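User: Study the shape:
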Amino acid sequence: MGDLLRLVADTPGCSIAGIYDPDISKMSAAIDTHSIPANRVFTDLQTAFAEAGADAAIVCSTTAEHANVTVAAFAAGLHVICEKPFAANVADADRMITASKEAGRTLAINWPLAWYPPHITTKRLIDEGTIGDVLEVHFYDGNRGPLRHLADKIEVSEDEAAEMKRASWWYDPARGGGSLLDYLGYGTTLGTWFLSGREPLAVTAITDNVDSHTVDEHAIVVCRYASGLSKFETRWGTFTDPWTIQPQPKCGFVVVGTAGTISSYDYEDHVMIQTMEHPVPTPIAVDTLTAPMRNIIEHFDAVALTPERLHAPLTPQICRIGQKIVDLAASSAAAGKTVRYE
């Protein structure tokens, strides 16, 4: 939420109408950083909706509460940006989609990776036919752990992070914790975008946690498509955070097509391409993004009233497929077997 509030504050024509959390202490840093007056700080959600005078709500609740808060926002007449992941499950995602349609308001699910120039460049190259038809998507992503950094990527020591684990929802399986639920949707949603909306036939997943009382910090998911196998790997505990130093394996995507390949790594200033004509991997500079495609806030401000212009990987249609794969991956890991995509 700290990153999104900074974007709101820095975007011309946008301002912070109010902030809400039932625990006022959790808002203290944001209040100080953005000089938010007391009459714009709320500990009751309905009061926030009624008194803030907002046009849109940014939802950064626990994953388990995404649907409840989003549905309430639509009922209050607001557009909604829901920070990733989409929802706790497909049923909740469908509640959010239905509420959006009934209210006539726009729903966007924000995946920060969807704004990275390498990944936007990769999709442009795919659409231009540079690598032919996409056959496989390979994804590896994560960070050192969700408690190793605060808002604005302020770093936390390993000892401090270990202390916070005991109270954090990130490490509570009942509230949507774990690397699979945190990061898999990135890969399956952008992967679905790269695959032009195709759905898999089956999903197989394995995680490192050994019982239902702990959350996973490492998960590997294989999806079988009509075109072949794709792999989506999530990791809390990368050697370094990718926004500081790319770890090994690198965080990002490798896309394989019938006529070439593209490697698209987070934060890098180029993508690497192989083609039939030029099989030696060649760096291609990433596209320079311009308004309103540089971040979620300026984009949503520009397209909220025309949802057909919404950046594709933020749309409920693409995100629902990504969410369904996440659901099936969780089921597969728990059951220890492949599950069909039905």
Notes: The chain has a mean pLDDT of 93. Residues 149 and 155 are 4 Å apart (CA to CA). The chain has two domains: 2-110, 113-290+309-340.
